[in-house]
Amino acid sequence: MVTEIAKAKLNLALHVRARRPDGYHELETLFAFVADGDVVQVEPSEADSFTITGPFGALLSGEGDNLVTRAASAFRERFGGGAHAITLDKRLPVASGIGGGSADAAATLRALGVLHGVAVDEMFDIADRLGSDVPACLFGRSAIGRGRGEQLEPVAGLPGMPVLLVNPGVGVSTAEVFRRWDGVDRGPLPVDPRAGRNDLEPPARAIAPVIDDVLEALAASQGAGLVRMSGSGATCFALFEDVASRDAAVEALAGRGWWMLASYLT
Ligand SMILES: C[C@](O)(CO)[C@H](O)COP(=O)(O)OP(=O)(O)OC[C@H]1O[C@@H](n2ccc(N)nc2=O)[C@H](O)[C@@H]1O
Ligand SMILES: Nc1ncnc2c1ncn2[C@@H]1O[C@H](COP(=O)(O)OP(=O)(O)OP(=O)(O)O)[C@@H](O)[C@H]1O
């Protein structure tokens, strides 16, 4: 049995530069990863099986299609390896801008790679076909993403930096948020992510105005540095100078009914 953590993905900055003829958008984004996330367990088995558990599992159990089983099928088509019993412990909110499905797909590929002796480097083309965020999640370390997000350049991260993720419980469709982007190129990613933006914040806030409340609450938290929405939302994050101020923010925000994950960057 191989266990892999599907770490939550953050876009510390996300600049949308252009809409492409194929419907996707040219991005420049700074990816970072959080120590916690979903948990994927894979073991060889007589027959394929897929079980979903965890606080957000019920949302996905009804869907026939899952990025985990799609990743496993793509792996088998390319590298073989037979049948597997796979369990997904779904701890991250669904459709929330922190790449849950993408991280699950990447974790599945990593686990299958361990079981069958396939190096991560050999799986990037499969990852690319599964979704724009899957290559970054397979890489799993801080990187600048360009193109659809699949062209990755490793950068030094902020390992150990305390972070708080807050999701107000509203699922936001990535495709819908990109559709509402106003088409204005506001310029490239700066060297310092604090000077950057998430260009998907305005269209996501138009769909889910509660994002404003989350951003405001995080910005008002003592010790919060960079505060921003991740991906296409609605999850927002704050980086904290120390664990005590992060944990104080958790206490201050408890009772709002928002999902929170107090963790640190890897
Ligand atoms: C917003 C981000 O999370 C930032 O990291 C990603 O760009 C989205 O990654 P993802 O969820 O893996 O996205 P995909 O599954 O590839 O695409 C979902 C939908 O988002 C839109 N999409 C996605 C990525 C991109 N660069 N441009 C887009 O316009 C497309 O309408 C696409 O149909
Ligand atoms: N394992 C999975 N976990 C979550 N969603 C999945 C999974 N497999 C398929 N999906 C589908 O993908 C959709 C998007 O979910 P996901 O949580 O990956 O979005 P996201 O957090 O916005 O990701 P991103 O930041 O990459 O845009 C869901 O609404 C769901 O229908």
TrEMBL record:
Domain GHMP kinase N-terminal per the UniProt entry, residue ranges: 66-141
Keywords: ATP-binding, Isoprene biosynthesis, Kinase, Nucleotide-binding, Transferase
Catalytic activity field: 4-CDP-2-C-methyl-D-erythritol + ATP = 4-CDP-2-C-methyl-D-erythritol 2-phosphate + ADP + H(+)
Record: residues binding ATP: 93-103
UniProt xrefs under InterPro entries: GHMP_kinase_C_dom (IPR013750), GHMP_kinase_C_sf (IPR036554), GHMP_kinase_N_dom (IPR006204), IspE (IPR004424), Ribosomal_Su5_D2-typ_SF (IPR020568), Ribsml_uS5_D2-typ_fold_subgr (IPR014721)
NCBIfam families according to UniProt: ispE, PRK14608.1
Record protein name field: 4-diphosphocytidyl-2-C-methyl-D-erythritol kinase
Organism name: Sphingomonas kyeonggiensis
